[in-house]
Amino acid sequence: MKDVLAKMIPERQAPPPMVRRHNRAVSPAVEAIVRKCWSRTRRGRYQHARDLKEDLERQLENKPLRRRPGAFGPGAASKWARRHPRLASMTTACLVGAALVAGLLTLVIARGERLADLDAQAKSRQFLEDRKAAQYSLTARTGDAAHLDAGVGAGARPARPVRRPRQGRLAAGR
What residue ranges do the domains of the chain occupy? Predict the structure, then answer.
């Protein structure tokens, strides 16, 4: 008898077993209802049979349970989607569309930055070429004044504009 009581006391004090561990087909809401029915304390159980009936009916109608702590659990979103299929599909379509727009916008911005980098590199190359030409003209050991004036003019003139590759419609409006 003492052995039986020694085994029963820890079992009675332990929380009720998880139903979903044994059967994955049981929804989280049904498991919450079962666990509430198995509660060790009187306050933890349904106070009236009509409360249990109401929660069972709400579960069958895919509505959130009234007497469940933390009623917005893992199954709440899928229940909402089953109750409002049009709104759920429109929401999904809007989210996919927003993700596509965000992706395209990212590509346009990255393309603009890449074009700006290419433009800066081309201007830098052009500047270095002009500098070399001016240095050569200024340091050449010729007594030709026209050659020297050409070097001074090359060093003093503003950088030549660099032709940029033609941009698409989206990036051209920047």
Answer: 2-83, 85-172
